[in-house]
Amino acid sequence: MTDGDHADRTDAAGPARRSRLDTIRATTRHGLREKATRHALLPLRVFLGVTFVYAGIDKLTTSGFFASSGPGSIGGVMETVRDSSAVPWLVDLALKAPEGFGYAIAIGELVVGLGTLLGVLARLAACGGALISLSLWLTVSWQTDPYYYGNDLVYLMAWLPLVLAGAPALSVDALRARRRGRDGGPLLG
Asked: Could you give the C-alpha distances from 52 to 9, 16, 141, in angstroms and in order?
């Protein structure tokens, strides 16, 4: 066997080996990209979930929040924003039973936050979060000028990707979908 024969075999095996390595690298890159895409909404889910759980607990544990009047009370806030609200009829409705409205918001935030964090009925939870954010934007922060200083509009927009996509990774919904043998689900389940 001459040196030329050895070189021919090495050169012939070299491209095949490089081709396999390139395929492995491409597959790994594709797998990582797919995994990153699947988990892209996870930071948003965690942020919104934690924020809404915190907001609900904060309301439930703040002394005087559920009062019909006074500083920091739900009734006081509604009275303050009534004339500048985009939907004064909604504020009037809340003012008929400020304590009940306050509890509805607080418990709604808590349920939405937990549903979002755990990925339980995630699209429905995101719809609830979007609805809460929309109602707060149209009532409490409507008078904010310029509009983009108000945080409720930003929260509303942040909920929309979760309404559309749900919780495709690290969620009870994803686990249930895998058990049913599919990769998605309807709005309610």
From this structure: 65, 55, 17
